[in-house]
Each structure stands twice: as structure tokens, then as C-alpha cells.
Amino acid sequence: MTIQVTPEVQAAYNKSLDTRANAYAPYSKFQVGAAVKFKDFDQVFYGCNVENASYGATICAERNAIWGAVASIGKQNLEYLIVTTDQEEPAPPCALCLQVLSEFYDPEMPIYLANLQGIQSQLLLKDILPIPFNSFEV
């Protein structure tokens, strides 16, 4: 069952579907799209997963979107994240992506989990990563 979201979040979800289609996933066949929106910025940044035969060089959609955003506008406070897969039960960000989120962004930030039928759930970063690793205050 899809949840109700703002028109802005719905538009970002729709674009994350298009971005997901660009994923390069010849090994896992698991295509992921992501959208990140920063507070006080109108632009939404998108990413898809890009795999590599050297698995360590693979990047998740979430980190791809975040790195692009940081490269464009610098470190800012994130307003929300959308993760879009084709699974019936949408997938949350992986541990690496959660750590990146915890280092850069607010634990109260909503994370929307979506599949091809729409946004299925909303979680808070602090609920999926209650005790992040933080070696210093940023």
C-alpha cells in the first residue's frame, strides 16, 4: 500500500524511477534509484547504483546521489532521501549508506522506501541506525 506524500516528494519519486532505469547492475541485476533533497535548496539530486567487476568499486544509488549533491552545493542538511527498487518489500539503504547519512545528516531525516508501485513506507534515519559510528563531531 502506497503512503501519501507531498507533491514534491511524489515528483522526486517519479524521477528516481527514471534514474533507476539507468543503473548499471550487470552482476546483481538489482537496479536502485535514489533522490536526495537538501533543506533550503530547491534542487533534488538523483543517483543510481553503478556496479564494477571489482566489487569494492561499486557505488550504491544513495551515495551516488549524495556525493553528486555535495560536489555541487557542499555539505548541507538533508531534508529527505528516497530509495527506489523493484522489490515487493522495498529495500532500505545498506550499512555503508546509513553510515554516510549519519555522518552528514540529521537523525530525524525521513527516508522513503519505494518500489515500482510507489512510496511504500517512511522511516527515520535514527530508527534504522540507532547507534551510528561517529569518531568526531562534525
Automatic annotation (TrEMBL):
Its EC number is 3.5.4.5. Residues 7-122 form the CMP/dCMP-type deaminase domain. GO terms for molecular function: cytidine deaminase activity. This is Cytidine deaminase. PANTHER family: CYTIDINE DEAMINASE. This enzyme scavenges exogenous and endogenous cytidine and 2'-deoxycytidine for UMP synthesis. It comes from Alteromonas arenosi. It catalyses: 2'-deoxycytidine + H2O + H(+) = 2'-deoxyuridine + NH4(+); cytidine + H2O + H(+) = uridine + NH4(+). It comes from the Bacteria. Keywords: Hydrolase, Metal-binding, Zinc. InterPro entries: APOBEC/CMP_deaminase_Zn-bd, CMP_dCMP_dom, Cyt/Deoxycyt_deaminase, Cyt_deam_tetra, Cytidine_deaminase-like. The keyword Zinc applies. Pfam families: dCMP_cyt_deam_1 (PF00383). Belongs to the cytidine and deoxycytidylate deaminase family. Its cofactor is Zn(2+).
